[in-house]
Please model this.
Amino acid sequence: MKKTLWTLFLLWASSAMKGLQTNQGGQMEITRLKMSLLYVQSIKTFRLLFLSLFGMGTCLVLLFLGLLLFHISLFLYTPWSMYTKLTVGLCCSIVYLSGTVIMLSQIFASDKWLKIFHAETLLDQWNKEAPSKES
Model:
């Protein structure tokens, strides 16, 4: 279903481009080639995105299972008193929660995303072109 919709969209877009162009002979072929290249590149991008998300999901599941098994074995098989086990459990939860908050704030920082996608230069260019408030 998605393939059919995507094909219909590409055909519609190519016919719309056909109506806008004056020289329809060679330009139409170039447009079709460019759209085909864009289609193939989008397939490659989505494939890499899926593989990345699947790999990260698998790693997260394995990480959580490892943490769970570690804590189960720690609390079941150590000869500590109940107070010591409670203290260790609370310390572990505080460390995990603070680590999660710090990591999420670093991962989702907008400056880092702008740097990753090289949008800093674009923003700098827009700031230079924008009229200043003083004038």
Observations:
- Residues 78-135 form one domain.
- DSSP finds five helices and no strands in the chain.
- The two ends are 55 Å apart (CA to CA).
